[in-house]
Structures are given as C-alpha cells and as structure tokens.
C-alpha cells in the first residue's frame, strides 16, 4: 500500500508536488516545536519529582522500619478488604473450637515491610525474568529505588538509583543506571520523530566482596598438554545470569552493527528502564499488593481487542534509531 501511495505522489503534477514539498517543510517545523514541547515536559517532570520526593522518602522510612506510621496514617478501607474480612469471619467461625484448645502465641512483629522490593521483583514478569535465585538474598537488602532527572541546562537524562542497606555482598550504598535521552528530530529522517528517545546508558562498577560476585561463576575445565599428553584441571570465571548484570549493560558498537541477541538485550534494557521510571517507582505499593498487576493485565486485554490494527509501542520506537543501518 505504501509503495502505491508513493507512486501516486510521484505522478502528481509538478506544481502540486511543489506545494507538497512546502507542506513537508511545515511538517518539519511542527516536529521541531514538538521537540521543544517534550523538553518542557521533562522540566515539568523534574519540578514535580521534587514534590513527590518527600512522599517517597516517607515510603522508604516505613518500608525499612525507620518510622512507624500513626494510626491515622494507617487508616485505609476498600471493598476488597471488606470481602476479605467477611471471608475471614467465616474461616474464624469454622476453626473457633480448635482455637480454644490451643494456646495463643504472640504474633511476630517484623520491622517495616520485609522483602518489599524483592516481592515486587518476583511479582512483575519483566523483572522476575531477570531474577536468579542467587540474586534474592541480595535484593532483600534493597531499601529504595529512586528516579533522578537531569538538572536544568544539562542534557536530558534520568538516573535510576538502587539504595541498599549495608550487606555482605558489596560495598556500594547505591547502584546507578543513567539513561541519556534526546528530544530532537533526526535530520536524516525528521518525520520519524515521536518524542524523546534513549540514545545511550551507563551502568556502574559494583564493588563486590571477595567470592560474592553473582555475575560470574567459576568453572573447572580439563586441559590436555599437546606434547606430553598430561591432563590438568584449570579454573576460570565465566559470565553468570543475574539481575545485577543490569548495571553492566550491553553497549551499542560505534559503527552501529549489532547481532540479533544484542539488539534484543538492548531493547529490553531500555524498556525496563522506562518501566522502573514510569510504573515501579511511582506505584511501588500497588505492585507489592498486586493491584497494579491487575491494572496492567486489564490494559493488555484492552490492547488485545485491537489486534487487527498495528500496535504502536513507544518503548520500541524510542530505541529503533540504534538499529538503523
């Protein structure tokens, strides 16, 4: 269909094609204005991030048990809780006789909300796919995730900060991932502009304690000497699957050439970065309870109703420039 339309345009009278070219110039001007719009949106995000931060700080204090919320702050009621209370009443009546025969034991009162962020990681498919069993003990020490936006006048970017309590795995208090962005039309293809896009990212060096680096594993391999025929066993470290590889990301080669696996890894990384920024950090408690997961599923079901039409994924569009030849 596209080829037919292009052909029909080429067949337009010269005077009409001349006017179409004028419209294209106007369209480029529109794209430049749109780019400025998104730059101002980024500044607005940065402004409101400062307003959200005190609330997120309070969230961290409650999660880590640094602060105990007041009775007033804990007041919350929903229809779902009402249903759960009714179910609990039925269960309680059914077991009341057994309960009388047993001595009541004091309920454990853990500090804060144990494994808050780990629970989120395990609940969200996108994150649980990255999570390995050896990552879980480390993520139990994760006490907060924050999003920081670039300062005014600086190139557009956002940084994910993963704050950890002191632990036996690494010395870092904070692990970071910086996503660099741009909001300007590509001079070679200005009509492809659809908003800010990620152009690069930077991880950080993790200062692992000796023998605790879960991103590598030690393997033993037998080697046979070609001359003497003797066999010896050597050990070497090889890459290991781990969420913490997130902080040592695959980089696009300078010439833009990447194999299919690297392209997929890069695309997934950008999508995860957006997901942390736009969903996980702002709505963490709802992912902990599972309510946000239900909302996400509902959105996916609604998108599924439109399968006959081509679906646009802004996360994919933001990275496609990296894969152009």
Give me the secondary-structure topology.
Layout (H helix, E strand, L loop, with lengths): L1 H9 L3 H51 L14 H16 L1 H6 L14 H8 L1 H4 L7 H4 L2 E8 L7 E8 L9 E9 L14 E6 L13 E9 L6 E9 L20 H21 L3 H6 L1 H14 L9 H4 L8
Task: Based on the coordinates given, report the CATH architecture of the domain at 16-68 and 112-210 and 247-301 and 314-323.
Answer: 2-Layer Sandwich
* SS strand fraction: 15-25%
Helix content: 40-55%
Question: What topology, given as strand order, has the largest sheet?
Answer: 1-2-3-4
Spell out the helices and strands N to C.
HHHHHHHEEEEEEHHHH
Number of strands: 6
CATH superfamily of the domain at 16-68 and 112-210 and 247-301 and 314-323: Nucleosome assembly protein
Largest sheet, described in full?
A: 4 strands, antiparallel
Rg estimate, integer Å: 27 Å
Instruction: Please report the distance between the alpha carbons of the first and last residues.
Output: 24 Å
Poorly predicted runs of 5 or more residues = 100-106, 308-325
Structural class: alpha+beta
Number of helix segments?
Answer: 11
Shape: globular
Q: Could you please say which CATH topology of the domain at 16-68 and 112-210 and 247-301 and 314-323 applies here?
A: Arylsulfatase, C-terminal domain
